[in-house]
Fold this sequence. Notes:
Chain A is α+β, with helices and mostly antiparallel strands and 280 residues long. Chain A is 32% helix and 28% strand. Chain A has one domain (2-279): Fumarylacetoacetase-like, C-terminal domain (Fumarylacetoacetate hydrolase, domain 2), CATH 3.90.850.10.
Amino acid sequence: xxxxxxxxxxxxxxxxxxxxxxxxxxxxxxxxxxxxxxxxxxxxxxxxxxxxxxxxxxxxxxxxxxxxxxxxxxxxxxxxxxxxxxxxxxxxxxxxxxxxxxxxxxxxxxxxxxxxxxxxxxxxxxxxxxxxxxxxxxxxxxxxxxxxxxxxxxxxxxxxxxxxxxxxxxxxxxxxxxxxxxxxxxxxxxxxxxxxxxxxxxxxxxxxxxxxxxxxxxxxxxxxxxxxxxxxxxxxxxxxxxxxxxxxxxxxxxxxxxxxxxxxxxxxxxxxxxxxxxxx
Amino acid sequence: xxxxxxxxxxxxxxxxxxxxxxxxxxxxxxxxxxxxxxxxxxxxxxxxxxxxxxxxxxxxxxxxxxxxxxxxxxxxxxxxxxxxxxxxxxxxxxxxxxxxxxxxxxxxxxxxxxxxxxxxxxxxxxxxxxxxxxxxxxxxxxxxxxxxxxxxxxxxxxxxxxxxxxxxxxxxxxxxxxxxxxxxxxxxxxxxxxxxxxxxxxxxxxxxxxxxxxxxxxxxxxxxxxxxxxxxxxxxxxxxxxxxxxxxxxxxxxxxxxxxxxxx
Lengths: 280, 264
């Protein structure tokens, strides 16, 4: 009887791993081909928190297999309001890869995205590895520079709707990021005014305080959460601390700029190569 | 048929009674011509005069509706203003009795204090910069004498731009060297950021809002004067108040200001 139970358990685990891998493949496919998919939670795929991060790992591994490498991590749900909205009391995180990087002042091609949105952030550049529960001082000591940044989120799920575990499995919607000029002056970051402009018009207004009250707290949390999954934040990585305002959808022709008090500007443009191809 | 002046007096009295009794009244817009902003300001002026006549001192103005989102909600494309009385000023770190303001909410603003009159034709931003003695961070406690904040543009203007009380920081700063466009704003309740924003959220720049007011008041023949306090408009969303709440506001470059509300 005991043996039988054990066998059943083993079979179930093997089945789970297959499922996780299949789910990861579908998510990666959706990202790679820029086509939306149905939410896992509504397809009857029930993931645990751990399972969701395992799917994330497996889908990011597929990116690495295509030649991408990791450039850092992003933090999500870094405001109390967002955590309440999702019914959680913890942040989420996901890797940033080389394929997601957009040059400052460069151009994003909508053809590579499903329904991308942009949000203003603060970025940290690490000069030392950072791991485990760290103090505020240790976190500061590991940072080389800070910069204003724009993150492009693009849920692989239809209508940008998802459960907590859906979004973790989907690499926390991360799909692109643009980092402005790095500054070594690690100035006070807890109340920097931020204005997101679209085509020259200010559309979102906020302060870096919206990121956990102080973006440094997000870096401390990033080190802790990563270590809980056996990871180390590596020297040279970029950590995106979280959004300071609501996200805005992107359309072809947009000129996007973030103005951040004390840290300066970061900008990019949006085009759609499919439209250009049609016109030609 | 009722005369216009009678209607204005009736509306003014209704709002005064709501304030005095502590019982919000029905919206007043149905008593005035649809969307008649001029009439609404006449109602406001009557109650301001009523205040003066009962010994209250006018010490400045507040500017409202400085956010594009709020303007859209009310279907207007300009800000509005109300009168500030000296007895509406609460000391920094002070406590406000619960019944002091009807249906209170708080928002954070940049306050300007003038050292020159702005009585020239069409005062500009440069006139305003020359006339500004110093800048302070401010918490405005807005309130509405209208039930459930069910306001149109006419309701809020008639109701003195939904003003209540205001709290000013104590450490004046010169305009020189301040960046009132990108200054960050954080309003915290028990340490939690409940509203965040930035200078530009106020009509593009707090000085632009103030310049609008200066021009508007010159046109009305009641120019801004040396000593006037101007609350230039919210830098972020306003926040509901619960009994016992304490708020701390910070504006980059201007320091902080705080206020509490009495527990129930």
